[in-house]
């Protein structure tokens, strides 16, 4: 059996190779096939196939040896060829070096020859040029210009070059001998200069950028080059200011010029800077002067508004111009231009601001008081007035008639908003118009104005007036409107504090004035809080006084010691009903007038005083058994009213008072047990005894014996 190529399929796997070989041999396949399995025949075929493979291996081996010999021979030939190429390369490289040296030698000779030629040609060119200049000079000397360069208008560029050189030469000539020719050259120089400037002007009007560039390049060496730039600047502005907005027109003009100036002049940044300087010193300065001088002495408000707006728009314009190339230090350049326009207005800005703020604030306040038909009274200070005030604070003695303000608080949120708005605008102007070094000082002066007119002239005056309007505690009819003053003052304090943080703090946060402003704010608030505390204390005393009047007028001795014990049908006394109604109204008013912890503090104080009043009031009566029950009902109602305070201490006091009232009705045998109860165990025995003594049956021996 011959070994075919099919048996050596790639990839070669020995097991698969044996399987394919056995499958091809008759009788070498599966035992269940068409032919019976013949192991001998399979062995014989395998032996024959092995011999064939050995023969094939020998044949392939001989072929491999032959190929190896051929490869070795080729490798030797290739190595020999590479060596020959290397030798050829070395020879070529050597020739290249020789050629390079030769080229360098020739180049040196050529340069030397060029230098020699230049050395000969330069004097020759100068001589030729000098000869031409002498020829032209002779024409001026003769007084008749015949050369085509002077008579042909199309050769103005060449004529300009010649006349510029002749003008330089003429400067070196003695005046006495060549005065006439020097004058003629100067005259021609001036004429050509004017012609070039006129040509530049015409080209600009026609929009011929290339011609403008040529003429500008020629004029660069003339004295009148600056006139060329001036002409360009002047014509640029023609028709540029057709609208009412000079700042927007300026920005558009500079944007347009910036795009073309580089195509015309050799130093565009200088020309653009000169244009901007011209606009600032002429257009803008004139506009600013017209708008400010009109109101400077007659209308401070409009003057300040115009100054702020003009300065803001000028600085915004400056920021836009910073995008252009204006030279090395454009920031300083633009700052100087702005300063030159506004320096005379900014020097005394803060004085105008303070003067306006003072007069405006005074007018706002006066207009308010006039609308109330109120003549503002002076608040006395020092000496006798201070002594009276301290005595009244501590004793509540009527040291003079109280002022009837008919319930007017003399605090207006509209006035406050107007004052704060004026001050806010002043802070904004101050931030924009003040020098950086003067900003904290100026801001402090504005803040001082706010304190003077808002805090002192308005709030403090309202507090003083409110204090003077609080009636004495023994007054029978009291309009306790001071809580309205407290409510409005609290709202105003919040607005004042908000402006302090939002508008003043950013201006002084990094300066020594910060501590000064904080201290001033602290002092004024503490001063007003002290007056608020005094007013609230007096108001609470008045509330207690009103409760006393109600109790005195409504409470009768027979309420707690009725003649007929069986005829009592009421749940609590009329005095209790009216007092509780009054107290609930005052609690509600206090909650509306204050906020935060102040509500709890004031309600606690009122609750303690309310408890003391009821306690002392109950001590004035003698109680029968039914009267004691009615007193307990009254105290229960007072306790219910005390719950509205939502103050644990106040409720605890009334709980204890309710427990004490039980001593008025408890059976004599149970007195000791009640006194040792949870609510009364910690009370002083004298307090317990004082309540027991209020019983109508106290003098009975039996009761006295049980309590002893």
UniProtKB/TrEMBL annotation:
Residues 39-147 form the Exocyst complex component Sec10 N-terminal domain. The keyword Coiled coil applies. One of its GO terms (cellular component) is exocyst. Keywords: Coiled coil, Exocytosis, Transport. It comes from the Eukaryota. This is Exocyst complex component 5. Belongs to the SEC10 family. One of its GO terms (biological process) is non-motile cilium assembly. Residues 158-707 form the Exocyst complex component Sec10-like alpha-helical bundle domain. GO terms for molecular function: small GTPase binding.
């Amino acid at each position: 059996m011959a070994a075919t190529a099919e048996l050596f399929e790639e990839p070669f796997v020995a097991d698969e190779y044996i399987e394919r070989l056995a499958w091809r041999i008759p009788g070498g396949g599966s035992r269940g096939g068409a032919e019976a399995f013949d192991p001998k025949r399979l062995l014989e075929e395998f032996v024959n196939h092995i011999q064939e493979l050995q023969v094939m291996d020998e044949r392939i081996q001989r072929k491999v040896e032959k190929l190896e010999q051929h490869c070795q021979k080729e490798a030797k030939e290739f190595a020999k060829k590479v060596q020959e190429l290397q030798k050829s390369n070395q020879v070529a490289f050597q020739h290249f070096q020789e050629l390079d040296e030769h080229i360098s030698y020739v180049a040196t000779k050529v340069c030397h020859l060029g230098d020699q030629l230049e050395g000969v040609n330069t004097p020759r060119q100068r001589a030729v040029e000098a000869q031409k200049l002498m020829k032209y000079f002779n024409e001026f000397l003769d007084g008749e210009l015949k050369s085509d360069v002077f008579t042909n208008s199309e050769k103005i560029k060449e004529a300009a070059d010649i006349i510029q050189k002749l003008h330089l030469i003429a400067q070196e000539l003695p005046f006495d001998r060549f005065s006439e020719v020097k004058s003629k050259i100067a005259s021609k120089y001036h004429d050509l200069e004017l012609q070039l400037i006129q040509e530049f002007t015409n080209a600009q009007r026609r929009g011929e950028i290339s011609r403008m560039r040529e003429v500008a390049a020629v004029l660069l060496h003339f004295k009148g080059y600056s006139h060329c730039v001036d002409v360009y600047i002047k014509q640029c502005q023609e028709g540029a200011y057709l609208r009412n907005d000079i700042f927007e027109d300026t920005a558009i003009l500079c944007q347009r010029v910036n795009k073309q100036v580089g195509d015309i002049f050799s130093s565009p940044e200088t020309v653009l800077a000169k244009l901007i300087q011209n606009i600032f010193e002429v257009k803008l300065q004139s506009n600013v002067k017209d708008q400010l001088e009109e109101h400077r002495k007659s209308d401070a408000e409009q003057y300040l508004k115009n100054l702020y707006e003009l300065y803001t728009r000028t600085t915004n314009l400056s920021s836009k111009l910073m995008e252009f190339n204006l030279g090395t230090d454009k920031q300083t350049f633009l700052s100087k231009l702005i300063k030159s326009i506004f320096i005379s207005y900014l020097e005394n800005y803060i004085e105008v601001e303070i003067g306006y703020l003072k007069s405006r604030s005074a007018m706002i306040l006066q207009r308010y008081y006039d609308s109330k038909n109120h003549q503002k009274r002076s608040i006395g200070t020092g000496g006798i007035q201070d002594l009276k005030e301290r005595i009244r604070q501590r004793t509540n003695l009527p040291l003079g008639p109280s002022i009837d303000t008919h319930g007017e608080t003399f605090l207006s949120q509209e006035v406050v908003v107007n004052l704060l708005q004026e001050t806010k605008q002043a802070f904004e102007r101050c931030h924009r118009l003040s020098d950086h070094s003067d900003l904290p000082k100026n801001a402090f002066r504005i803040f001082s104005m706010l304190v003077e007119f808002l805090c002192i002239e308005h709030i403090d005056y309202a507090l003083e007036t409110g204090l003077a309007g609080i009636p004495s505690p023994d007054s029978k009819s009291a309009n306790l409107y001071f809580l309205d003053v407290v409510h409005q003052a609290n709202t105003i304090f919040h607005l004042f504090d908000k402006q302090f943080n939002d508008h003043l703090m950013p201006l002084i946060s990094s300066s020594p004035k910060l501590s000064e402003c904080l201290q001033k704010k602290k002092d004024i608030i503490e001063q007003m809080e002290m007056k608020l505390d005094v007013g609230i204390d007096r108001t609470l005393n008045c509330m207690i006084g009103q409760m006393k009047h109600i109790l005195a007028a409504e409470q009768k001795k027979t309420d707690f010691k009725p003649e007929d014990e069986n005829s009592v049908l009421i749940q609590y006394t009329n005095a209790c009903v009216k007092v509780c109604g009054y107290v609930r109204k005052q609690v509600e008013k206090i909650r509306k007038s204050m906020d935060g912890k102040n509500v709890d503090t004031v309600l606690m104080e009122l609750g303690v005083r309310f408890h003391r009043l009821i306690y002392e009031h109950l001590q004035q009566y003698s109680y029968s058994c039914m009267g004691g029950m009615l007193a307990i009902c009254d105290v229960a109602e007072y306790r219910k009213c005390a719950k509205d305070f939502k103050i644990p201490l106040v409720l605890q006091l009334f709980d204890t008072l309710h427990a004490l009232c039980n001593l008025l009705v408890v059976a004599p045998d149970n007195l000791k047990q009640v006194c040792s109860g949870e609510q009364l165990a910690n009370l002083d025995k004298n307090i317990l005894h004082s309540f027991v003594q209020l019983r109508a049956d106290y003098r009975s021996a039996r009761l006295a014996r049980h309590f002893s």
